[in-house]
Amino acid sequence: MPVATPAAVRKQIASGRPDPLYLLQGDDDVEKSALASEFASLVEDGLGAFNFDRIHAGEMTTGDKLAAGVSAVVAAARTLPMMSPWRIVIVLQAEQMLVPRRESEAASRAGEALEAYFKSPERQTVLVLVAASVDRRSRLYKLLAKEATLVDCGVLADQGDAEQWILARMAAARAAIDPAAVRLLAMRAGTDLKRLRGDVERLLLYALGQPKITVDDVKQIAGPATLQDDWAMTNAIEQGKPAEALRQLALMLDAGTPAEKILGQLGWLVRTKFPAIAPAYLTASIEAVFRTDLDLKRSAGAPRILLERLVVELGDRRQPPAAMRVVRRDL
Fold it and tell me: Could you read off the pLDDT of 37-92 as tens digits, one per residue?
């Protein structure tokens, strides 16, 4: 089955139409915990004691404990819900079940029981496995990849995902934030989850006690002058992402980075990386860097515009090199 985003799973939960089997994986433990907890909303208040189970697989450290633990998980999942359309079973540290530390007859029996359930899950139960890293070569992981909905917690596809991530964190912290502040925070961090998490944690501390977090608060804490990744622009060009490269260029210029330093980075990128990643564009790219250097020295245009043009030319390698040279002559 295709990998789903946390946002897509939240839509399933809100619509009351979840899948029967999920594997929440990835490096973002906060997101995994928050998303797993949201499945409880599928059960009406007052009925959780009959229809919600939370099991810790971290205690399944021996073959016998693993066999007993898996038996308890399967039994809970096979139990029909009471006065509710859904029964929810959350298994934390599920990697202990999926990839046992040592092989034994009991561990083999546990694996067979899980395989049987994964192939034929209870249709009125939502079994949610919350795991850290899982060996993707293992038999159970391959089966889950076929039968379950896999959710990567720790990957942001775009700015929309970043905004949803921020809103979820703010809701968990019971903090109010202006929509404009959410957009600015997401724009400055992009899809860099590590940076975004740090920004939000600092912002919550900075605005502690305030009724609402504002755009000015974000500017103070998540300013590009203190948190900009100096090599994010060149990394984006290397990956063929001109739009992201332009965004990072804007952050560098707003932070006061000299145009000469930026041009030096772009020249280094062309000299050291393009022979391997874009040999057909090497000559045209060197010409573009040389031309931009001359234009900057003779003030032939605004530095921002000259650098933006160069970044677009280096980052968008979909057009043939000859076409790039024609465009440059026209400019």
Answer: 999 999 998 898 999 999 999 888 888 899 999 999 999 999 999 999 999 999 99
CA-closest candidate to residue 246, choices 227, 266, 225: 266
Mean pLDDT score across all residues of the chain? 87
The pLDDT tens digits for 288-317 are 999 999 999 998 889 999 999 999 999 877
**Secondary structure class of 23 (helix, strand, coil):** strand
Residue 91, beta-bridge partner list: 55, 129
Phi-psi category of residue 132: left, alpha or beta, with phi > 0 → left and psi -120 to 50 → alpha: beta
More confident residue, 130 or 191: 130
DSSP state of 52: E
Domain boundary among 181, 208, 227: 227
Considering the domain architecture, whether residues 31 and 144 belong to the same structural domain is answered as yes
Please say whether the dihedral angle defined by the alpha carbons of residues 193, 195, 197 and 199, taken in this order, is positive or negative: negative
> 106 and 68 in contact (C-beta within 8 Å)?
no
Nearest Cα neighbor of 160 from 181, 182, 175 is 182
Residue 263 and residue 19: Cα distance in Å, rounded?
51
Q: What is the rounded CA–CA span in Å between residue 212 and residue 209?
A: 9
Number of domains making up the chain: 3
Percent of the chain with pLDDT over 70: 93
Number of H helices, E strands in the chain: 19, 6
Q: Are both 84 and 175 inside the same structural domain?
A: no
Residue-range definition of the domain harbouring residue 197:
159-227
Which position has the token pair 């994010």? 232
